[in-house]
Design brief:
Elements: E1 11-12, H1 14-21, H2 25-33, E2 40-43, E3 46-50, H3 51-60
Antiparallel strand pairs: 1-3, 2-3
Length: 64
Amino acid sequence: MKEVPIWEKSNLSLEEAAAYSGIGVNKLRELTNERNCRFVLWVGNKRLIKRRLFDQYIESEYSI
């Protein structure tokens, strides 16, 4: 099975999102715990990061 590069995935695990963005896993967990977080997708108890919305979020923020 071919490995899909992170930048081609639509959803990322917390670990992949941390490697992709340089933001720590704990900070990502904190951000995605917020009620109005637009870039989190819950699959049962598993949390995935919607990469495109995450990119938009990072572009629009001055500091995290």
